[in-house]
């Protein structure tokens, strides 16, 4: 996505401040339901209705075991303890790293974090108004305190989705901070 790579140096630096790190990775099978190319006559960023509600269609992205699904070449977070792959089922998307887009099918991350005694999460990455937003909402619902490091995120903004995300964060008590609040200059 445009400017998406700008978050990499910020995230690399932030990661040095954290002992417990989970990396998440879109990992879609070919022909995934979220791809416009899987729906004849449809274009990216159109919305369709599927069994769990509305689904925005995206350009093909993050196909399993292809270079497009790889972490950015300049990402340096060697001490991350878990890489969670999401969107692995062909017929359901997963913006959130906690639940697929039916908001019910768990990825298992809540259990992983609870078992390890983690109660507060700092989120960074792409995209602010989709994967970060949905992850934040699900994390709050599962009882975690959530902080978003805003300048370590970039949004896409489809039909006002950034404004909608900010309203949701405010309503849920999700704090938004800057990386410099965590990393000394
Ligand atoms: Zn995806």
Give a structural overview:
- The structure is a single chain.
- With 185 residues, the protein is an alpha/beta fold.
- 23% of the residues lie in helices and 21% in strands.
- The protein contains four helices and seven strands.
- The strands form three sheets. It has a three-stranded parallel beta sheet. A two-stranded parallel sheet has the order 1-4. It has a two-stranded antiparallel sheet with strand order 2-3.
- Helix 3 (128-141) runs parallel beside helix 4.
- The two termini are 28 Å apart.
- The mean pLDDT is 96.
- The structure holds zinc ion (ZN).
- Zinc ion (ZN) is lined by residues 26, 28, 34, 61-62, 87.
Topology:
Layout: H1 7-15, E1 22-26, E2 47-50, E3 53-56, E4 82-86, H2 109-115, E5 120-126, H3 128-141, E6 145-154, H4 161-172, E7 175-177
Parallel strand pairs: 1-4, 5-6, 6-7
Antiparallel strand pairs: 2-3
Helix pairs in contact: 3-4
This protein binds zinc ion.
Residues 26, 28, 34, 61-62, 87 line the site of zinc ion (ZN).
